[in-house]
Amino acid sequence: MTTSDLVLQERSKFIKSKALENGFDFCGISKAGFLETEAPRLENWLNKNHNGSMAYMANHFDKRLDPRKLVDGAKSVISVLLNYYPEQKLPEEKEDLKISKYAYGNDYHYVLKEKLGNLLSAIREEIGEVDARIFVDSAPVMDKVWAAKSGLGWVGKHSNLLNRDMGSFFFIGEIICDLDLEYDGATGDFCGTCTRCMDACPTDAITEAYVVDGSKCISYYTIELKEAIPADVRGKFDNWIFGCDVCQDVCPWNRFSKPNKTPEFSLQPGLAEFTSNDWEEITEEVFREVFRKSPLKRTKYEGLKRNIEFVRPSR
């Protein structure tokens, strides 16, 4: 091993150590470059209008496939995973209205950005001047692909990243930088012949293994879609009013999920006591107070009321 190789190895070891110190569960590194395999897949997905009304998914096609167009001179993509699996879950009785587990606590964008900012500061303190940018759903970055290339897991048939140690309830973030580092190799695909996610999807959004029609996903209908929800999917939402966890809940790999250690992801105060009646009668004042720091703000009060009405139409 050359001196140069040792330097790259030590730098990478330092970055991963600091990532864990900052609360991340996993950290991997891959070489920045053009995602040749993903290019035709993305183009085909967009051509089939699987992005629905999410027009932004078709923007910056070239940047989405090459991080060097986002950071000049980029050489490495540092990917991190932060577990959000809850210690305390909301009731899941047959008649209860449900929200995705990722929305139990504070908005993950702010939590991850702060942790990534601390990590980047530590890198600069140790190594010196580094040209880099932090990404948490804030630019056209194919985060699951980069996490997989960095050895953090594989993209499952439900299109979520799966990690053999802790399943799929993770947020993903990246630092794209101009540092040469030691790169990790991708893992294998361990979905095997399992089709539980495909079989369980209430709206048949997983059209084939590894392909999700985003325009049919309950998360899309309840969060991204701004107009009225199509009548032909009424009765198929299984009481989900913000997001959906069905494909993850049925995945055998999530039997390894462990409660997260991030205080910001704990249940919002008062949310644990919410009944279906509380959801149905929620006022804008209560919405603003309970979900002040929550991802639910994204759908806004009117959107949440629309979702509740769609799942539980007034009698």
TrEMBL record:
E.C. code: 1.17.99.6
Cofactor(s) needed: [4Fe-4S] cluster; cob(II)alamin
Gene3D superfamilies found in the cross-reference section: 3.30.70.20
Entry keyword Hydrolase: no
GO function terms (MF aspect): 4 iron, 4 sulfur cluster binding; cobalamin binding; epoxyqueuosine reductase activity; metal ion binding
Enzyme kind, highest EC tier: oxidoreductase
Binding site for tRNA: 226
4Fe-4S ferredoxin-type domain ranges (all copies): 179-211
Record: residues binding [4Fe-4S] cluster 2: 201, 217, 244, 247
Quaternary structure and partners: Monomer.
Family to which this protein belongs: Belongs to the QueG family.
Function: Catalyzes the conversion of epoxyqueuosine (oQ) to queuosine (Q), which is a hypermodified base found in the wobble positions of tRNA(Asp), tRNA(Asn), tRNA(His) and tRNA(Tyr).
Protein name: Epoxyqueuosine reductase
